[in-house]
chitinase
Amino acid sequence: MTLAPAAQAHGNDHDRDKPRTVGYYTAWSGYDRNFLVNDLVKNGTAARLTHLNYAFGFLDAEGKCYSPDPDADFKRQFTAAQSVSGKADVAGQPLAGNLNQLKQLKKKFPKLKVYISLGGWSGSKYFSDAALTPESRAAHVKSCVDLWLKGNVPGLKPGAAAGIFDGIDLDWEWPSSPANDGNVIRVEDKVNFTALLREYRKQFAPLSWRNGKKYDLTAFLPANPGMLDRGFEVPKVFSLLTFGTVQGYDYHGGWDSTTNQQSALRTPAGDPTNSNFSTQVVVDHYLKSGAPRSKIVFGVPFFSRGWTGVKNENNGLFQPVSGPAPATYEAGQEDYKTLKAQLSKFKVYRDEKAGHAWLFDGTTFWTWDDPTELKRKGRYISDRKLGGAMIWSLDSDTADGELIRALQSGLS
């Protein structure tokens, strides 16, 4: 057996005539939202995805990979009605939880690639330490490969979760830039991130030799141009990644003192901020920095950002606020399907030129990525010949999958 050439190993993760559609499924989706892996089948999402990122695996203080929610990941038992296979879990089976459901999902959709996503907003504290030295990088990657790719889950038989994941997605938020409180940050993160990717590729190789399977490596990358410049050696990073998913949302949110868009294609006229965040600004900066078009998978939101106590002028846009809008799980953020059920309370406004929409009722303002805007975003990605779209997150769509259907219609 011989390994694939480097270009093939790092790039050809799917049929390049078809844009990637990458969706995040979170471990907590199955709790209050009661959105199970099987719901991806029921609402037609699984059939429309090329890749699924399962979020998240965490790093401990030593930089080693671990499951932050063993019950959701590999212990919870599902009924026949809840499971992808239609068969109930039973006591003593080798593997349960979401990992077993993902295993069943892959059997049902054999072309679907599934990755484990590491880190995220609340799980990136120790990435800088893990990436710091050759020894720490090697130990970190070894632990992640052992747990998530070889499937050696603590408390289960060796290899109980083997073969589920086709690669690893690094969601380090953010190298050399502050994010969640308490994160370790270093100037050296920029070069160490590249070195960490090299270590992943190095340790993927012998595993591929043994089992004949090629493993992908992806990363979640920031929308903020300053964060990109501070934290990433862009050409080197993209040469090592199968593709990169670029944050295409959270341009503005409840942390701001005025209402604004969170995912506009172009900077809206009259934007009073100095940041001028927009999809076009982000994409142009990535291309200018050396990212290949075909490896930029651009993020789209299935959720809204909102404010309350909004001054009733200009249909609520660019107005001072009293604070983030009350919401179901987190102030200032709400699922699309939840807001859709309340749509009669609001009026919908659209900026066709800038490519964004919002809801306003005279005092509360929500950004609004509905099927019209998702189709528009899909067309933008297709027109610019980018590598596809990434979705955060799949549990926010409706029971009939109207957002992913609209996105795919724009991409095709």
Notes: The first helix runs from residue 6 to 11. The two ends are 37 Å apart (CA to CA). DSSP finds 14 helices and 15 strands in the chain. The longest strand covers residues 51-59.
